[in-house]
Specification:
This protein folds into three domains: 19-213, NAD(P)-binding Rossmann-like Domain (Rossmann fold, 3-Layer(aba) Sandwich); 222-466, N-(1-d-carboxylethyl)-l-norvaline Dehydrogenase, domain 2; 477-620 and 667-711, 2-enoyl-CoA Hydratase, Chain A, domain 1, CATH 3.90.226. 46% of the residues lie in helices and 13% in strands. The chain has 34 helices and 24 strands. The strands form six sheets. It has an eight-stranded mixed beta sheet with strand order 3-2-1-4-5-6-7-8. The chain is globular and about 80 Å long.
């Protein structure tokens, strides 16, 4: 079962990691410490003792012997975690799980550690000396690892004891550790296989990682292939006379890559960091064409020498001047207006459905787009094939490393399949490229793709398709559909048999937006589950759980003045949402990603939530001139009441917080923050691994069923009434008179206050739920009839951002 905050998942092994020591508190060390804190693991972060006092320390009369000075480096880096963006901590409250110390006074605490992680300077001699220093202080069962991005793990452990070597391996996190899924595990020839097995399971379940076992070669898998691809791109850019902006305009989303594309990625990573990674491979490779490819271009060296390191220095390949983004002209080294390729093939590709079709359209384009992208792909795919057996056990490990570490939608071999292996190999040979023998042999045997329809991948050693071990915790609903069939389905959602008498409701509309189809399917699914199943999960495999209601549909009805139809739709939404709350069987909702507006409203009445760590939850309707209309106001208020002791003073606090959440459209930046906002309760659970979310939700349904789940009874709700409404409106009126919000903003806030306060009743009055829903629906319909609200809705649909009117 997934963990609740501060309550880690039990890993089924004799080993446990409850306390870790991280040696090195720089960006990566502190980032790893933060992510361990996200997983509920106590961490001690150590760094060197300063050799000089700061001006502030001198002013305070401190000396180099004072404890506050001796652990200052780790302490300052710990505090920086609170200011970083994106936030490495899922909640600022988790900072308390990170202790600090230094490498002279606190070595004795290493005996407490279940896991010791080295994250110091990338120098082999310094790492070897550190391991020699700490070994006498380690427990005999403590796991020890290095976070090196490419130094030999075998070389690091030379001179250490057999016991140390059996527990030592590489654990290469990608930066930032919270957000990048990849963790490369690099065992040595002496690492105990049980340690590798345990660390893989631990990292997947507790840290939410996608784990790849890499071989101990320069830069392992991700950075070896990724660095090569970036350098090849730069080389082809110079050969073809492309600008930085032109390259980035076609090496991002149209290829199934992140929007940062090539050069924006380098700026974010840090050009100096990239140069170090490239130099590491260059220094370790024998002389030849491969080594030459990793030679850092003169332009990059110049940028580093001049301190233009990318985002962290304010400029690199790009520079922001005011609101304008300028690109570096590599010929003049001046920043100029950003350009993009405008060939028709780009627009044509973007209009095609599916990532594979887009990819083929641009790579094979007969223009400057294809002239750039074809050689980049040909060289990168061939390099991946050449290295397959050197850097990894199989092609799937390489694909997963590139997807999880670099954000590619398709790894190199999946990309090759999408382009067509036979077609590309013929073109590669025509263009004079050398194709690895094993790829030729595969095609000669009649195998024309690296993956088959069953998801198995080609193994060159056995010359057959093989499959990975199936992890029962990784449930894909597309696989559930194939194996178990569909119980119910309409245009917006489908109900599937999840096994063990549990059903799962999956939304299928665009962006999982809520329309009448989904409302109907919620009601029909609950009716069926109450008769035939132990419970229901509401989940999906999408990037986002649900971005809210179908805004275009609502606007169309309002513009046509179909008020009766709108009233019916909102009432239908309210009733389907409340049916989740009062279902006789437990319903677990599994939000993840964007869970906005109606997505939050669907989550609130669930028996339990099984939320993904990266759940961004909030009621954001005010951004389009509305208030929540699907019970979001009453259910948020009720949740906040449930989390406070009885007493009239607490209804004021609950009303105030509900009002602030909705009026300010607060959105959590994690499931932990959603708990702080009141959307996730203490009884709800959080899954660290997105791939385990549906499994964890199913297990929670089964647990609720085993323990005799009973739906909550309908009860009356105490409200703050007229007096409370006046209090809620006070701050917004002051903002209006101060010119901070518009008259329409004030109108929205007044309607919202009326609903949350329970209308025109006395303070402390107990009202029934339907009354609260009725005044919510009345306020919603009133606002959607306003021209300024309709303008806001239209602006959001067209521009994708709020209109202030």
């Amino acid at each position: 079962m997934a963990s609740q905050i501060g309550q880690p998942t039990t890993v089924h092994t004799t080993k446990h990691i409850q306390f870790a020591v991280i040696i090195g508190s720089g960006v990566m060390g502190a980032g790893i410490a933060a992510h361990l804190a996200n997983a509920g693991i106590r961490t001690l972060m150590l760094d060197i003792v300063p050799k000089e006092l700061t001006a502030q320390e001198t002013k305070q009369g401190l000396t180099l012997d004072d404890a506050a000075v001796r652990s200052r480096i780790a302490r300052d880096n710990r505090q920086k975690l609170l200011k970083q963006n994106p936030a490495p901590l899922a909640s600022k409250q988790l900072l308390d799980l990170i202790e600090v110390g230094n490498l002279e006074d606190d070595l004795g605490r290493l005996k407490e550690a279940d896991w010791v992680i080295e994250v110091i300077v990338e120098r082999l001699d310094v790492k070897q000396q550190l391991f020699a220093t700490i070994e006498p202080f380690l427990r005999e069962d403590a796991i020890v690892s290095s976070n090196t991005s490419g130094i030999s793990i075998e070389a690091m452990r030379q001179g250490r004891s057999d016991s140390f070597n059996a527990r030592f391996l590489g654990t290469h996190f990608f930066n930032p550790p919270r957000y990048l899924k990849l963790l490369e595990l690099i065992p040595t020839s002496d690492t105990d296989p049980e340690v590798v097995r345990f660390m893989k399971q631990f990292a997947e379940e507790r840290l939410g990682k996608g784990v790849v076992i890499a071989k101990d070669t320069p830069n392992f898998i991700g950075n070896r292939i990724g660095t090569y691809g970036l350098l090849v791109t730069l080389d082809e850019m110079k050969k073809g006379g492309y600008s930085i902006g032109e390259v980035d305009s076609v090496t991002g989303p149209v290829l199934g890559r992140p929007s940062s594309a090539t050069f924006r990625t380098l700026d974010v990573v840090g050009i100096d960091t990239f140069v170090h990674v490239a130099n590491n491979v260059y220094d370790l490779l024998p002389d030849g064409a491969e080594k030459d490819t990793f030679a850092v271009p003169a332009e990059m060296k110049r940028l580093v020498d001049e301190g233009s390191l990318g985002a962290k220095s304010g400029q690199g390949f790009y520079k922001k001047v005011g609101k304008q983004i300028l690109e570096l002209d590599l010929a003049t080294f001046e920043y100029v207006e950003k350009k993009a390729l405008t060939e028709p093939s780009i627009g044509q590709a973007k209009a095609l459905p599916g990532a594979k079709n887009k990819l083929k359209a641009v790579v094979f384009a007969k223009d400057r787009v294809g002239a750039l992208l074809w050689p980049i792909h040909a060289k990168t795919l061939l390099y991946s094939a050449q290295l397959t057996h050197e850097i990894a056990d199989d092609i799937k490990a390489i694909d997963e490393a590139m997807k999880w570490g670099f954000g590619w939608k398709m790894g190199p071999f999946e990309t090759w399949d999408a382009l067509g292996v036979e077609k590309t190999v013929a073109k590669m040979k025509q263009d004079g490229y050398d194709v690895p023998a094993w790829v030729d042999e595969m095609l000669a045997s009649g195998v024309t793709s690296f993956y088959n329809e069953d998801g198995q991948f080609y193994d060159a050693q056995t010359q057959t398709y093989v499959g990975s071990a199936v992890n029962p915790k990784e449930i894909r609903l597309r696989d559930v559909r194939k194996s178990n069939g569909v119980l119910l389905e309409n245009n917006g959602a489908r109900l599937l048999d999840l096994g063990d008498d549990v059903a799962v409701l999956e939304f299928t509309s665009k962006s999982n937006a809520i329309g009448v189809d989904i409302m109907q399917m919620i009601e029909q699914s609950i009716d069926l589950v109450e008769k035939n199943h132990r419970g229901l999960v509401i989940a999906n495999d999408g990037k986002n759980f649900c971005v809210g209601a179908n805004l275009a549909m609502m606007l169309m009805e309002a513009e046509d003045e179909n008020w009766f139809e709108l009233d019916w739709i909102i009432n239908k939404f309210q009733q389907s949402i409340q049916k989740i709350r009062y279902a006789s069987r437990p319903i677990v909702v599994a939000p993840q990603g964007m869970t906005l507006g109606g997505g939050t409203e669907i989550s609130l009445p669930a028996a339990r939530l099984q939320a993904g760590l990266e759940t961004y939850m909030g009621l954001v309707e005010v951004g389009v001139g509305l208030i929540p209309g699907g019970g979001g106001n009453v259910n948020t208020y009720r949740r906040l009441l449930e989390n406070t002791p009885d007493g009239l003073v607490n209804i004021e606090k609950a009303a105030q917080k509900t009002f602030e959440n909705v009026a300010m459209a607060k959105v959590s930046k994690s499931a932990f923050e959603a708990r702080e906002l009141g959307y996730v309760r203490t009884v709800d659970h959080i899954s660290m691994n997105r791939d385990h979310l549906t499994h964890d939700a199913k297990q929670l349904v089964l647990e609720l069923d085993r323990t005799g789940y009973t739906a909550p009874a309908r009860s009356r709700i105490p409200v703050v009434g007229r007096a409370g409404k006046a209090t809620l409106e006070l701050a917004t009126r002051e903002m209006f008179y101060g010119g901070y919000i518009s008259e329409h903003d004030l109108k929205i806030a007044s309607k919202l206050a009326h609903v949350i306060a329970g209308g025109n009743v006395s303070f402390g009055t107990q009202v029934d739920e339907q009354y609260m829903l009725d005044i919510e629906r009345e306020a919603f319909l009133s606002l959607i009839g306003e021209m300024k609200t309709q303008q806001r809705m239209q602006h959001m649909l067209v521009k994708g951002k709020p209109l202030r009117n």
